[in-house]
Amino acid sequence: MKSMKNIFSSRKRRVDDKKLDMTRLPKHIAIIMDGNGRWAKKRGLPRTAGHKAGVEALRDIIRTCSTLNIKYLTLYAFSTENWKRPKDEVSALMQLLVHYLKKEIIELHKNNVRIRTIGDISGLSQVARKEIDIAIELTKNNDGLGVNIALNYGARAEMIKAVKEMCQKVKNNEIAIENIDENEFEQCLYTKGIPDPDLVIRPSGEFRISNFLLWQIAYSEFWFSNIFWPDFNGECLMEAIIDYQKRDRRFGGIK
Ligand code: IPE
Ligand code: IPE
Ligand code: MG
């Protein structure tokens, strides 16, 4: 708990970290980082200023997850539907991604963070792909917090990809149709090898999933908040975890 004090001592604490049960932490937290545009609008700033502030917010969240020894953090950064946005906004988002990785990767590596991506990276620019490859390669042996960045990610596209891969396996006689089960299917998802999220967080006051991890959230707990993502900090995360710890997860069974 000592290092956690360091994180929160600098500001007045709303959340009492003593309420946190360190033996029942979620293993995997997934976050829909939403509300950047509205955060900026409220301040009379361009939407891109909101995205920039959103990246800043990420630092505190990654630090808090690392300190708490959370194993996986999945971040929804760009969806398959976000291409519908104006060209300028899309390119600003991609530039921010490149800038973020360039600036933060050494620090992330020092902190034993492992970077992975989920989504169709082939749809991104060569510059972005290069930075992603560098980050993945550099951190591949780290065994601290696993950060999965969802980029050009859509859960429906992910499932179609998995179905195609399964069909190909059947065609190649690598698997019989009768032997297709949930386990086999999961091997074809981007999240292969990563446990399902225990807790899904969506800030910004929206109560929807927006094509995020549809398969993997079958039994996840949800936490919604009106806070826009750029204002989301370690304290908000702690609040979400404390709420999560009050939930009774039955997975269809009974106590
Ligand atoms: C989330 O913030 C960032 C991305 C979707 C890339 P938004 O840009 O969706 O912000 P709002 O929802 O318009 O406020
Ligand atoms: C979801 O937010 C995608 C990301 C946060 C990357 P959106 O802002 O794109 O979702 P909708 O349009 O409100 O459903
Ligand atoms: Mg949004």
UniProtKB/TrEMBL annotation:
Enzyme Commission number(s) of this protein: 2.5.1.-
GO aspect biological process, one term: polyprenol biosynthetic process
UniProt enzyme class: transferase
SUPFAM superfamilies: Undecaprenyl diphosphate synthase (SSF64005)
InterPro entries linked to this entry: UPP_synth-like, UPP_synth-like_CS, UPP_synth-like_sf
Obligatory cofactor(s): Mg(2+)
Active site location: D34, N82 (proton acceptor)
Annotated substrate binding sites: 35-39, 47, 51, 79-81, 83, 85, 202, 208-210
Keyword field: Magnesium, Metal-binding, Transferase
Cofactor details (free text): Binds 2 magnesium ions per subunit.
Cross-referenced Pfam families: Prenyltransf
Source species, domain of life: Bacteria
GO cellular component terms, A-Z: cytosol
One Gene Ontology molecular-function label: magnesium ion binding
Residues at which Mg(2+) binds: D34, E221
Record family assignment: Belongs to the UPP synthase family.
Function: Catalyzes the condensation of isopentenyl diphosphate (IPP) with allylic pyrophosphates generating different type of terpenoids.
Binding partners and assembly: Homodimer.
Name the record gives this protein: Isoprenyl transferase
Source species of the chain: Marinisporobacter balticus
